[in-house]
Specification:
The protein has 150 residues and is mostly helical. It has one domain (39-146). 77% of the residues lie in helices and 0% in strands. The protein is built from 7 helices and no strands. The protein has helices at residues 3-11, 17-48, 55-60, 66-86, 90-111, 115-135, 142-146. The chain is globular and about 55 Å long. Its main location: membrane. It is found in: Cell membrane. Pfam families: DoxX (PF07681). InterPro entries: DoxX, DoxX-like_oxidoreductase.
């Protein structure tokens, strides 16, 4: 056991839990990535069946031409969610999803005037995706299996 691991265990209120935490560290991160990706895919599945259906809405936010941005939104949520879930091109997929979510923060907080209560869920999801922008897919990802990461 390394000195840093030993020091970490000493700082725990229940040092015996250190082994459990260490054993589940990667698995818990993988579960968070998979759940975030699956949820984003589910959310995007409504848009991918009608990829131009949000054209008017995105133009209302100032994104022109609406058909292009609507298609990009649908693909980002649906395919980006799949990529995040399996850990393929994790960082770029998470970055694209985070960008979409930050636009929804702006939409709810500023455009709709709902403030924090309207943007809270989007802020939380953007923070989760930011984590994967920085961390990548971890060793339990397609990126790790192919030996390449962004």
């Amino acid at each position: 056991m390394s000195a840093s691991t030993e020091n970490s265990r000493r700082s725990l209120f229940v040092p015996a839990l250190g082994s459990l935490y260490a054993a589940l560290h990667t698995t818990s991160e993988t579960i968070l990535r998979a759940v975030a990706g699956i949820f984003l895919t589910i959310h995007g599945s409504q848009k991918i069946t009608d990829p131009f259906g949000a054209a008017e809405m995105v133009e209302g936010l100032g994104f022109y031409p609406g058909a292009f941005w609507s298609l990009l939104l649908a693909c980002t949520e649906f395919f980006g969610g799949i990529f995040i879930a399996i850990g393929l091109l994790t960082r770029p997929a998470a970055f694209a999803g985070m960008f979409v979510l930050l636009v929804t923060v702006w939409f709810h907080w500023v455009t709709m005037g709902e403030g924090f209560s309207g943007a809270e869920k989007s802020l939380l999801w953007a923070a989760i995706l930011f984590f994967f922008v920085i961390r990548g897919g971890n060793r339990q990802s397609v990126d790790a299996r192919i030996g390449r990461a962004f």
